[in-house]
Specification:
The complex is a heterodimer of chains A (about 550) and B (about 120). Chain A has about 550 residues and is an alpha+beta fold. Chain A is about 35% helix and about 25% strand. In chain A, strand 1 (about 10-15), helix 1 (about 20-30) and strand 2 (about 35-40) form a beta-alpha-beta unit. The N and C termini of chain A lie far apart (about 75 Å). The chains are: A alpha+beta (about 550), B alpha/beta (about 120).
């Protein structure tokens, strides 16, 4: 209730007096001022009407037969629901001790008879306003306290997440949780013991505080169980315990046990655990058992896998897969979170991953938002070579030749030559030298070949005062299934809108409904780059990009041949 | 097609058919639970959930369904699902509860199969 301007029509007053003439008189006075008025002729009737109609204020006569005003007031003050109901007592001027008795019994104010009509209305108005203000202040304070509690709970929940990226032998682990509200039922954790290293993601059903409490309790119990036993036995014991507790909550869970290059994976009700190799989802591990705590009799199996260096394991909660449709449970989320293996062999920080998760979950409708968590485990150590070049246009040909020489046999040298020339030229001109913004005035829009003019300017630039010679860094990495090239530069970032080649139009041919994508690009020659490479992955800061070629399938190679 | 936002309960002899709305999630699971509790209090132990209008359910709704399933199981009752679309089916598949609930293609098949089940309360 918010009372900024006082409107009498919004308030009802109960007049309690055993004399009918008084009830009529006070009722008429108050109705004339706009109040809704009801009347009671006895204390018993007053208590019944207060219970039924919940008036804003009561005008209560002191002297009444059977139950007098003091008795009514005492009943009101002893009831939790009416203890703060404003009451004005009508007392006889000939009995001053009634005033003391009324105030002692809890009356908020008193008016002596005979009643001055104007005084009565004025006093009631100010009392209702004061009461509403008190209610509003208390309500606001309660809300502020509750929000502060939630913020504190959120801080505690985030602080209980492990510090990432986390290193265990050759493994690197990162993760982030983005609750749909202040706090939620998702979390992840890492447990190391004599048995190896365990990483798990928990998603307790529902949202909010109840789910957060169950998640915290489950995490603590799982920690304890994993220190003593295997993934399978820990989950089975946890299921037995959670099933017996009548919280009405269950827990979807995925866990990974790292044992050198071998892993064991368990999935109980979460989207498939994805194994990324090169630019593909190499394998998906679907649930092998029902969510934990749902049915006491559930059984669970682990999936053993042997992984290669550079492989990544991705655990996702359903808050990251549901908005993207049923056909590709993990693929879209991996794509949108940019979780593919990188040339630099780096995992995103917890903050960067959290920011990516919040960005993509914001795209879904508010009613679809759920707690969202991603955890990535990477077996480090892809083969990688690195060189630095001066950020000049003349560096492009030798840099491209170096990369072409590093490529595996199956990688198309022409694709690398054309695509990398485009990417590297733009990285130098627009990124490292920042010609587009520094020298915009010198390239007239009327120039027939603005691009050629940029090249000329780039050649002139080192002779200008204050020129800083910057560098571009090239790095290549390859594994059995993919070849990646990383370009990074100091200078200006590529703006987000220029990083993508956008399919902007759909056209149909005359005779058939064939869809022909038309690529629109806004800088960086991204249409050429996207056409020649299988994947283009940008650094979060826009000052680096990775270009990946995936090894063709055996079948498609033979078809092409 | 109009979006259905209400639960509808229909009684056919001993069978109680609950038609679910477009979406069952944390915002309306309380109503869902209240409706189911009323049916259980009335000793209606043979239930069918009709998902014809339902595009999506969340974990809260799934939790409520599982609770009812367990209650019915202890009473010798029966719960089946029908007209389950791809969105709901995916949630059931990921959590593997599609192996727990009997699922029928349409309401007629669910009525036929559930109707064969003995009615533990003996109510009509």
């Amino acid at each position: 209730m918010i009372i900024n301007s006082f409107v009498p029509e919004e308030h009802s007053i109960l007049v309690v007096d055993d004399t009918m003439a008084n009830r009529r008189l006070y009722g008429a006075l108050l109705r004339k001022s706009g109040f809704a008025v009801s009347t009671a002729g006895s204390g018993e009737e007053a208590l019944r009407l207060i219970d039924e109609s919940k008036p804003s204020l009561v005008v209560l006569d002191y002297m009444m037969p059977d139950m007098d005003g003091i008795a009514v007031l005492e009943r009101l003050r002893s009831n939790k629901r009416t203890e703060k109901l404003p009451v004005v007592m009508l007392t006889a001027s000939s009995a001053p001790d009634h005033v003391d008795a009324a105030l002692a019994a809890g009356a908020n104010d008193y008016i002596t008879k005979p009643v001055n009509g104007k005084l009565l209305v004025t006093r009631l108005c100010s009392m209702i306003q004061a009461s509403a203000h008190r209610y509003q202040t208390t309500h606001l304070q309660n809300t502020i306290n509750m929000l502060e509690d939630l913020r504190e709970a959120a801080r505690v929940q985030q602080s209980q997440l492990p510090s990432v990226p986390f290193r265990y032998q050759d493994w690197r682990i990162t993760g982030a949780v983005a609750p749909s509200g202040a706090i939620g039922g998702d979390l992840f954790d890492i447990v190391t013991s004599d048995n190896g290293c365990f990483t798990f993601l928990l998603d307790v059903s529902g949202h909010g505080t109840g789910s957060a409490l169950v998640a915290a309790e489950t995490r603590s119990e799982l920690h304890h169980l994993l220190r003593r036993g295997s993934l399978k036995s820990a989950v089975e014991t946890l299921n037995a315990h959670l099933s017996q507790r009548a919280t009405g909550k269950y827990c979807c869970l995925a866990g990974v046990h790292l044992l050198g290059n071998d892993v064991e994976i368990i999935n109980c009700g979460l989207p498939p655990v994805a194994i990324l190799r090169g630019g593909r989802i190499h394998q998906q591990v679907w649930g092998s058992g029902l969510p934990v705590g749902m049915f006491e009799e559930s059984s669970y199996e682990v999936t053993p896998l042997s992984l290669q260096r550079g492989d990544r394991i991705v655990l996702l909660s359903d808050g990251l897969t549901e908005p993207f449709g049923a056909t590709d449970d993990a693929q879209s989320a991996v794509e949108r979170l940019a979780l593919w293996p990188t040339v630099s062999d780096q995992l995103p920080s917890g903050e960067a991953l959290s920011s990516r998760i919040r960005t993509i979950t914001r795209e879904s409708a508010p009613e679809l938002r759920d707690d969202a968590t991603a955890v990535i485990l990477m077996l480090a150590g892809t083969v990688s070579e690195q060189l630095k070049y001066s950020a000049r246009p003349e560096s492009v040909p030798p840099a491209v030749r170096w990369v072409v020489d590093q490529r595996p046999d199956w990688a198309d040298p022409h694709a690398i030559d054309h695509g990398l020339t485009e990417a590297l030229t733009n990285a130098i001109l627009h990124g490292a030298l920042d010609l587009a913004s520094n020298m915009r005035d010198e390239v007239s829009s009327a120039d027939a070949d603005g691009y050629q003019r940029y090249l000329e300017l780039a050649a002139e630039l080192p002779q200008r005062p204050g020129f800083t010679d910057r560098q571009v860094e090239l790095q290549v990495a390859s594994n059995a299934d993919a070849f990646g090239i990383r370009i990074a530069w100091d200078g200006s970032p590529c703006p987000p809108e220029a990083r993508r080649a956008v399919i902007s139009d759909l056209t149909t041919t005359d005779s058939q409904v064939a869809i022909k994508p038309v690529l629109r690009t806004s800088g960086m020659g991204m249409h050429i780059i996207h056409a020649l490479f299988d994947r283009v992955v940008w650094d979060d800061d826009g000052k680096g990009m990775e270009l990946w070629l995936d090894r063709p399938d055996e079948s498609s190679q033979s078809t092409a041949g | 097609m109009a979006i259905v936002e209400e639960f509808f309960v229909d009684q056919r002899d001993a069978l109680t058919i609950v038609a679910l709305p477009n979406r069952v999630d944390v915002s309306n699971t309380r109503s869902f639970v209240d409706i189911l509790q009323r049916e259980l209090d009335s000793e209606h132990w043979l239930l069918i959930f009709d998902f014809e209008q339902t595009q999506a359910i969340d974990s809260t709704a799934l939790g409520a369904m599982v609770q009812v399933f367990k209650t019915l199981r202890t009473q010798g009752g029966h719960l089946s699902l029908c007209n389950v679309g791809s969105g709901v089916r995916r949630v059931l598949a990921i959590t593997r509860v599609d192996r727990v609930f009997p699922i029928y293609d349409d309401l007629d098949a669910a009525v036929l199969a559930t109707g064969r089940h003995p009615n533990p309360s003996g109510n009509q």
